[in-house]
Amino acid sequence: MENINKLDVAILGATGAVGQRFVQLLAEHPWFQVREVIGSSRSAGKPYGDAARWLLNGNPPSAVAAMTVLPLDAPLLSPLVFSALPKEAAIARELELAAAGHVVCTNASANRMLPDVPLMLPEVNHEHIGLIDVQRRQRGWSRGALVANSNCTVMPVVMALKPLVKYGIRRLHLVSEQAISGAGYPGVASLDILDNIIPYVPSDEQKMESESKKMLGDFRGDAIDELDMTVSATCTRVPVVDAHLVNISLDLAESPPLADILEDWQTWQAEAPIPSLPSAPRFPLQYINAIDRPQPRRDRNAGRGMMTSLGRLRECPILGYKFASLSHNTIRGAAGCSILNAELLAAQGYIEGFHMREAALPM
Amino acid sequence: MENINKLDVAILGATGAVGQRFVQLLAEHPWFQVREVIGSSRSAGKPYGDAARWLLNGNPPSAVAAMTVLPLDAPLLSPLVFSALPKEAAIARELELAAAGHVVCTNASANRMLPDVPLMLPEVNHEHIGLIDVQRRQRGWSRGALVANSNCTVMPVVMALKPLVKYGIRRLHLVSEQAISGAGYPGVASLDILDNIIPYVPSDEQKMESESKKMLGDFRGDAIDELDMTVSATCTRVPVVDAHLVNISLDLAESPPLADILEDWQTWQAEAPIPSLPSAPRFPLQYINAIDRPQPRRDRNAGRGMMTSLGRLRECPILGYKFASLSHNTIRGAAGCSILNAELLAAQGYIEGFHMREAALPM
Amino acid sequence: MENINKLDVAILGATGAVGQRFVQLLAEHPWFQVREVIGSSRSAGKPYGDAARWLLNGNPPSAVAAMTVLPLDAPLLSPLVFSALPKEAAIARELELAAAGHVVCTNASANRMLPDVPLMLPEVNHEHIGLIDVQRRQRGWSRGALVANSNCTVMPVVMALKPLVKYGIRRLHLVSEQAISGAGYPGVASLDILDNIIPYVPSDEQKMESESKKMLGDFRGDAIDELDMTVSATCTRVPVVDAHLVNISLDLAESPPLADILEDWQTWQAEAPIPSLPSAPRFPLQYINAIDRPQPRRDRNAGRGMMTSLGRLRECPILGYKFASLSHNTIRGAAGCSILNAELLAAQGYIEGFHMREAALPM
Amino acid sequence: MENINKLDVAILGATGAVGQRFVQLLAEHPWFQVREVIGSSRSAGKPYGDAARWLLNGNPPSAVAAMTVLPLDAPLLSPLVFSALPKEAAIARELELAAAGHVVCTNASANRMLPDVPLMLPEVNHEHIGLIDVQRRQRGWSRGALVANSNCTVMPVVMALKPLVKYGIRRLHLVSEQAISGAGYPGVASLDILDNIIPYVPSDEQKMESESKKMLGDFRGDAIDELDMTVSATCTRVPVVDAHLVNISLDLAESPPLADILEDWQTWQAEAPIPSLPSAPRFPLQYINAIDRPQPRRDRNAGRGMMTSLGRLRECPILGYKFASLSHNTIRGAAGCSILNAELLAAQGYIEGFHMREAALPM
Question: Active site includes C244?
Answer without folding.
Answer: yes
